Give the backbone structure.
Amino acid sequence: MDRLKNKRALITGGTTGIGLETARQFLNEGARVAITGTNHATLHAVRHELGNDALIIASDAADIAAQKSLANAIEEAFGQLDILFVNAGITDMRPIEKWDEAAFDRSMGINFKGPFFLIQALLPVFASPASIVLNASINAHIGMANTSIYGASKAALLSLARTVSGELAGRRIRVNAISPGPIDTPLYGKLGLPETELKTVAASIQGQIPAGRFGRPVEIAKAVVFFASDESAFTIGSELVIDGGMSTL
Ligand code: NAP
């Protein structure tokens, strides 16, 4: 229960789903944890659940100036940062003809541009060693319809895990990525689909997963604990696909 003892961690988008479960696992393993989000209701709910155990910060992952403020807040609270889990993300699914520039910029801003500038803003704050884990997706690998921009934003994160590893290895800052398949989180309720259509879509996705079910947030969070801990000290610039076999079988 102390695999992350004395480590200081920041999780972006830690208010629900994979991020919240990872915050619980990090706390269980002895880390000090800060999490971000934008929705007042879920920020309030997570404050209620985690109480004084976690630092809860309202911060928009797409706002570039806010990444600098977030880095300053982390430095003020923790001094240095040992673990960054880049998790905040949105899934906007639409066919190519339905995209406009604003929607394109929103997805890329939250999923890739903001995270890039957060890592840059945190450079003076990272301890040595430190671990950065990027939450990508199997949509970076498969040709699922309506995921052109989502998949591209996640492919960009996978590339970043390798290139920034090359730049930061000298400082003993490791960068790795996880690529989850379908995980049972509030994400699907945010797709804007009516309840009946959502059930049909979920059943269709489930039929494509060799494991026969959606994954659970804890099944991703445990992998993030591994990447965040010193157990993975020799793992640099790598990706772990956790998808019940969906992209490979
Ligand atoms: P989720 O429950 O919707 O969680 C998304 C988190 O990101 C929430 O905490 C949300 O908080 C935060 N967020 C969204 N926009 C934000 C913004 N502009 N600024 C700061 N925080 C923001 O969904 P999830 O499934 O756990 O998703 C977490 C990550 O896993 C995402 O990057 C997603 O792409 C990835 N992923 C999920 C699946 C899946 O099947 N669930 C599969 C592969 C990858 P607020 O609402 O408060 O902003």
